[in-house]
Specification:
Blueprint (H helix, E strand, L loop, with lengths): L2 H28 L7 H27 L4 H26 L6 H22 L1 H7 L1 H33 L4 H18 L6 H47 L6 H7 L2 H4 L1 H29 L10 H22 L1 H4 L3 H12 L4
Helix pairs in contact: 1-4, 1-6, 2-3, 2-4, 3-4, 3-6, 3-7, 4-6, 6-7, 6-8, 8-11, 11-12, 11-14
Length: about 350
């Protein structure tokens, strides 16, 4: 291979992988609340790369078994790849590590971006033979499709999970169906590749802009309302009026079921949870306003105490406290963020 050809191939590789990565980190930058740290984004990129490697193995295995490449690429591969990519996002939602549409969109796009990057690197010999135009179409079209389809799956799924208040298999079915449909339509030879790439470059930013706008409005309302409730309850505990409050009366009603010692642990767990949760929401607001967030040196100690109290209370004790701490998917997401001590 001559040096000129080598440089040409390098340019084609860069064009095929750089646009989707630039778009991903642009999404991360415009997330004013910084719900996802760079570590989470890199983890999702790696997950997408691993998924692409697995799907490449499965796809090539089907070809070796005699499955016709064209029908499989148009109908079979989209289903396989979207299920594999979507599994990561569905797991994050199921594990309460995603609470809003914006972090679902970024997480989903990161998985799709990682998938597209490795897929395009695997096809470097084909890109070198096909030329610059093919590399550009894969970079600005196919790669964006992979990221966009998985992002849409995440957005639709987290929205359904929050509206229904419970997560079952059918929570993810509509988002997966949309992602598979987008991928399948993109793989059909109905429109020229350039037209499909341009359409994606126009529609995807518009769609994600709407997602960011709606998600940040919902996050702003939730943070304000929940922060007020947390602070009000903390003030009641601090002033000594807790026992006569509705929350105090509810907690005392649990004594017959759990005993006085466990009730004391419940009160400690409640106060510590409220303090850490209020601190986490305050950090979100500071990030949104552009102020730096300094790490609390005592946070690790308080988190260890929180985990100790969780073990003492057990599952039944934590369930009994849900009327005071909240039990919605966003409340559980907040507790997960709080237990991690960051916006992981």
């Amino acid at each position: 291979m001559t040096p000129i050809l080598s440089k040409t191939v390098l340019v084609q590789v860069v064009v095929s992988v750089l646009p989707v990565l630039v778009f991903l980190f642009a999404l991360e930058l415009i997330d004013t609340y910084k719900l996802l740290g760079i570590r989470r984004v890199m983890q999702m990129l790696a997950a997408g790369c691993a998924t692409a490697a697995a799907c490449y193995f499965v796809n090539t295995s089907f070809y070796r078994l005699g499955v016709p490449p064209d029908p499989w690429a148009r109908f079979g591969a989209p289903l396989l790849e979207e299920v594999a990519k979507g599994a990561w996002v569905c797991w994050l939602i199921r594990a309460s590590r995603i609470g809003f549409m914006v972090d679902a969109a970024i997480s989903g796009f990161a998985v799709g971006a990682g998938f597209a990057v490795l897929e395009n690197l695997l096809y470097v010999p084909d890109l070198a033979a096909a030329g610059f135009a093919t590399a550009a179409i894969r970079g600005f079209g196919t790669a964006m499709m992979h990221g966009g389809a998985t992002a849409i799956l995440g957005v639709v799924s987290v929205n359904r999970a929050e509206m229904r208040g419970v997560i079952w298999f059918d929570t993810f079915a509509p988002g997966l169906a949309i992602a598979v449909s987008i991928h399948t339509l993109y793989n059909q030879p109905v429109l020229p590749p350039v037209t499909k790439a341009v359409a994606l470059l126009i529609l995807l930013p518009v769609l994600l802009s709407v997602v960011f706008w709606r998600s940040e409005l919902a996050l702003e309302r939730w943070v304000g309302t929940k922060l007020d409730k947390d602070i009000d309850l903390l003030q009641i505990i601090a002033t000594g009026d807790f026992s006569s409050s509705h929350a105090g009366k509810y907690l005392r009603s649990l004594e017959s079921a759990f005993g006085a010692l466990v009730l004391g642990d419940m009160l400690c767990y409640l106060q510590l949870s409220l303090e850490l949760s209020a601190q986490a929401k305050g950090d979100l607001l500071r990030r949104e306003m552009g102020f730096p967030v300094e790490k609390d040196p005592d946070q690790r100690v308080r988190l260890k105490e929180l985990h100790y109290l969780e073990r003492q209370l057990g599952r039944a004790g934590k369930i009994a406290l849900t009327p005071l701490l909240g039990s919605s998917l966003r409340d559980i997401w907040d507790l997960h963020r709080m237990s991690k001590g960051s916006a992981a």
